[in-house]
Task: inverse folding
C-alpha cells in the first residue's frame, strides 16, 4: 500500500501583499519620456491626470524639442478637445492646440489659417446630436439620425473644417432596424460617398446607396444622390454567375466599409461568423 500523502492548505496572502505600490507621478512620467511616441499617446488617453501632465508645455518640450526627444518631426502637434469638460459645462470650453516642434512656416500657416478656424467653432453640431457615422471620404462625412415613426432617417453630409451641413432624408424605400424581414418591400442601404477626387462633375459630392444585403438573391439595388439632395430612381443590377452559399451559414452582409479604388467601389461580404466569401464590385 502506498504511503499516505499529507495535504497542506496554503493560507491566503495578506491583503497588503496583493496590492501593488502606486508609482509616483514623477517616476511614471520619466518612464513615459523614455518610451516612444505611440506609448505617449496611449498613456495620454488612459486617464485624465496623466493626460494633464503629458499635455503640459514642459513635458511636450522635453519629448519633442530636446536632442533625445522621442516624438518624430512628422507629428505636427497635440489637439486637446477637452471631452470631459465638454460633457459637464455649457457652453463647452474651447479646444486647444499645441505645436509639437518649433514653429516652421508650414506649421504656423496650418495652425493660424486652417486649424484656428476649426478650433474657434463650437460648430453647428448641436443639430447633429444623436447622428451616427455612415461613410466618409476626402474630409467629408455622411451622418444619419435615428429612425422616425415614418421609418425615415435624417441624413447629412458634414464638412468638419467649414461646419457646413447638407441635410436630406434617407432613401424613400430604406428600412430601419434589424435585417430579419423585408416583407414590406423596404431595403437596407449601405452608403458610399464620392467627391470630385473620384471624377464627380457638376456636384460637390455624390452619395451612393446600395442594397448589398440583397446580393444573396443575385441582385443589387442602387440609388444615387448629388449635392442637390434628390434621390435617383432605383437601378437594379443582376448577377449572372453562380452563387455558392456556405452550408448552414447566415446571409451575406457587407463587412465594415466599402473600398473605393478609382471609379470602382468594392464591398467585402461575410456571414455572421465573419467568414469572408465574396468581393462585390
Result:
Amino acid at each position: 500500500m502506498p504511503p499516505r500523502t499529507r495535504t497542506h492548505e496554503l493560507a491566503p496572502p495578506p491583503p497588503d501583499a496583493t496590492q501593488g505600490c502606486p508609482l509616483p507621478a514623477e517616476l511614471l512620467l520619466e518612464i513615459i519620456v523614455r518610451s516612444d511616441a505611440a506609448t505617449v499617446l496611449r498613456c495620454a488617453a488612459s486617464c485624465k491626470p496623466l493626460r494633464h501632465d503629458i499635455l503640459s508645455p514642459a513635458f511636450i518640450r522635453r519629448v519633442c524639442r530636446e536632442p533625445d526627444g522621442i516624438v518624430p518631426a512628422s507629428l505636427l502637434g497635440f489637439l486637446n478637445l477637452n471631452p470631459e469638460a465638454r460633457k459637464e459645462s455649457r457652453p463647452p470650453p474651447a479646444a486647444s492646440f499645441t505645436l509639437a516642434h518649433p514653429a516652421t512656416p508650414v506649421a504656423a500657416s496650418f495652425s493660424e489659417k486652417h486649424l484656428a478656424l476649426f478650433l474657434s467653432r463650437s460648430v453647428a453640431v448641436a443639430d447633429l446630436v444623436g447622428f451616427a457615422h455612415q461613410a466618409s471620404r476626402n474630409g467629408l462625412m455622411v451622418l444619419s439620425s435615428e429612425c422616425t415613426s415614418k421609418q425615415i432617417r435624417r441624413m447629412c453630409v458634414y464638412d468638419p473644417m467649414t461646419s457646413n451641413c447638407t441635410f436630406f432624408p434617407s432613401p424613400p424605400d430604406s428600412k430601419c432596424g434589424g435585417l430579419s424581414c423585408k416583407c414590406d418591400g423596404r431595403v437596407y442601404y449601405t452608403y458610399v460617398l464620392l467627391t470630385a477626387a473620384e471624377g464627380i462633375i457638376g456636384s460637390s459630392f455624390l452619395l451612393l446607396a446600395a442594397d448589398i444585403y440583397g446580393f444573396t438573391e443575385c441582385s443589387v439595388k442602387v440609388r444615387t444622390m448629388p449635392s442637390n439632395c434628390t434621390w435617383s430612381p432605383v437601378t437594379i443590377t443582376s448577377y449572372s454567375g453562380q452563387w455558392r452559399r456556405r452550408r448552414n451559414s447566415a446571409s451575406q452582409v457587407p463587412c465594415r466599409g466599402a473600398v473605393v479604388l478609382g471609379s470602382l467601389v468594392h464591398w467585402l461580404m461575410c456571414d455572421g461568423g465573419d467568414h469572408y466569401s465574396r468581393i462585390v464590385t
Observations:
- Residues 178-184 have pLDDT under 50 and may be disordered.
